[in-house]
Amino acid sequence: MKDLLISHVDLDGISPNVLLTLTGRKFDYKNIDIKDIDTTFDELFTKDIKKYENIYICDLTLTEYAYELMNASGLTNIKVFDHHKSHLFANEYSYVTVKVDIDGIKTCGTELFYLYLKDIYKELNKNCIKEFVDLVRQLDTYCFKDEESAQNLSSLHDLLGHKEFVKTIVKRLKKDKEHFEFSSFEKRLFKIERNKINRYMQNKELEMKRYTINGKKCGVVFAESNKSELGNYLSNKYPELDLIILFNTAQSVSYRTTKDDVDLNEFAAVYGGGGHVKASGSKISNDIRNEIIKLYFKGAKEEQ
Ligand SMILES: [Mn+2]
To answer: What is the phi/psi pair of residue 213, to 5°?
Structure first.
């Protein structure tokens, strides 16, 4: 029997695919956005959820609806691993592990999944795998020990895309190398990519608008990539702002701050979202997208 992995779409969501591949288990996977949780669960629980030996869910703040389905299914082979504060409520279920930090250090979905898997699959107890997991953790929590390597891992993911990234990392981690390393060719690519990102951040900085929203001073930019890096860059550079809002009309709204006295989990909750204290997000509904189209193209009528 196969396993099933349901996980998020970012690097912390993709890296569990790497870990499960390394165990040698056969598995199906779904890397999904927060907004697709209910439809994904609906489909799975009306169809083939029973064909799996283990079901792992990582880095996703699940909805109450998802918990209703899981609890009603009577399945005992589900395990949930997540690190979002807004998901702590789910720890009341025995199959759920939601931790925001471990011994005072912020953790991530990949690390929690790793800590579980490595006790079952001893082959995962290798230093290079630990180093890889820690780079993912640094990047996802923005608590850096080695920022350059962590950013390089993110660049590699951007350059390769999900599938190739998983393949490449699995191959590298299978080798008996003590450390997780990048090739010299990759390092050259990273330099080029870094220059590109710096130009992108400078352009976004010029486009930033200032608003007071909900009593907070906000810098607002339309941004489609490198959201954490851009948000932190702007938040550090403009300390008079409480937070940075990154608006990606096609996807969602992200909130970032480097300030200790601002709670973005709370701020995002006002707009139906959530996440962490310093990084959170909320959805953009299709209705809002329709409004934007109608605002721009005055008199536009939607065809059914
Ligand atoms: Mn995460």
So the answer is: -130, 125
Q: Do 86 and 213 reside in the same domain of the chain?
A: no
- Cα–ligand 1 centroid distance for 107 (angstroms): 8
Could you tell me the residue range of the domain that residue 106 belongs to? 2-178
Q: How far is the CA of 8 from the centre of ligand 1 (A)?
A: 8
Confidence grade of residue 18 (pLDDT, cut at 50, 70, 90):
very high
Domain-embedded: residue 196: no
* Cβ contact 151:196 at 8 Å: no
Q: How far, in Å, is the centroid of ligand 1 from the Cα of 303?
A: 38
What CATH number is associated with residue 272? 3.10.310
Total domain count, the chain: 2
The per-residue DSSP string of 134-194 comes to HHHHHHHHT--SSHHHHHHHHHHHHHHHHHHHHHHHHHHHHS--SS----HHHHHHHHHHH
Give the chain's radius of gyration (CA, Å): 20
CB under 8 Å to 88, separation ≥6 — which residues?
98, 100
Considering the domain boundaries, does residue 168 fall inside one? yes
In a domain, 185, yes or no: no
136 CA from centroid of ligand 1 (Å): 9
Summary count for the chain: helices (H), strands (E): 10, 13
Q: What is the pLDDT of residues 30-82, one digit of tens each?
A: 999 988 999 999 999 998 899 999 999 999 999 999 999 999 999 999 999 99
Cα–chain-centroid distance for residue 299? Answer: 38
- Can you tell me the distance from the alpha carbon of 10 to that of 110, in angstroms, rounded to the nearest whole number? 11
